[in-house]
Amino acid sequence: MGRALPAVSPATALTFAGAPYTSRAVEKAQFIWMDGQLVPWDEANVHVLTHTLHYGLGAFEGIRCYECGDGRSAIFRLQEHIVRLANSARILGLDCPYDIDAMTAACIETVQANGLKECYIRPLIYVGAGEMGLASTSNPIKLSVAVWPWGAYLGDDGLNNGIRVRTSSYTRFHINTLMTKAKAVGHYVNSILASIEARNGGYDESLMLDVDGYAAEGCGENLFIIRDGRVKTPPIATVLEGITRDSAIALLRASGVEVVEERFTRDEIYISDEAFFTGTAAEITPIQSLDDRVIGSGKPGPITRAVQDEYFAAIKGERPGLSDWLTYI
After folding, report:
1. How far apart are CA 198 and CA 205, in angstroms?
2. Tens digits of per-residue pLDDT, 218-235?
3. At 152, phi and psi to the nearest 5?
4. Gyration radius from the chain CA atoms
5. What is the pTM assigned to this prediction?
6. Using CA atoms, how far apart are residues 189 and 67, in angstroms rounded to an integer?
7. Crossing angle for the helix pair 302-315 and 243-254, nearest 10 degrees?
8. pLDDT tens per residue, range 16-36
9. How many angstroms separate the CA atoms of 29 and 154, rounded?
């Protein structure tokens, strides 16, 4: 007989290189949408042989719903997120049985069913159980939508005062290694390793470089720097087409700030006046320092603050000209 394995508590913390990595626990909601049915949270399960669990072939989105100034709730840029989800599935060759309208409706239904005024929304297209092996083609393609309350991803202090970032030892993948336009499940192993490396080193987040050594993005965020009043962000060839990235560019340009998409090196970040990350989870988070070099004054600069203010005004429904970014529920 083989030796019995020691019991492991579900609350055991993930460790990396001997150091604990802790993350914010997900606050349970009531229901999760699974293939057309609202299932109680604790019953929303899949088989252990679910293909995506083993091989990482799947697509997902991160979307936020905010309570607006008038008391209503609205999902921010829902249409753009669901279009990207459908495009991710197409890139990965997943024949999702739900079209854009059906996936949009599923997100709205799940938020409404859980009665949340503000929440994070996670639709997931995944390959179900059936065949095993890399080239399995007969397994069902499934869709789930979960929602839960979630605050500032990089912390309220980081959102207000900026975060400490380090350059990762892990490189962002080449465009022909993994498909950079797909928000794919398996892609995030690269991000997880970089994120844990940063946290274990006492930093808030990692900066990832592309295969040529240029600044690419954070573990789950797009990158912006500001120098002499001019904003730069890496082009989308090697990074995900961020929807918050697109929102920030639109808001900056509308306020008369020049924004260019071009490659830059990490030492240009060291000497920039301001820098910030964007993402649905991170929203617009200032970067205080990179590799222990203070960015600018070490505090969020005027352009970062201005685009933050405009972004939060937009998501709260306080910019009528941007009402098409909001889906009220």
Report:
1. 5
2. 999 999 999 999 999 999
3. -70, 120
4. 20
5. 0.91
6. 32
7. 110
8. 344 444 456 789 999 999 999
9. 22
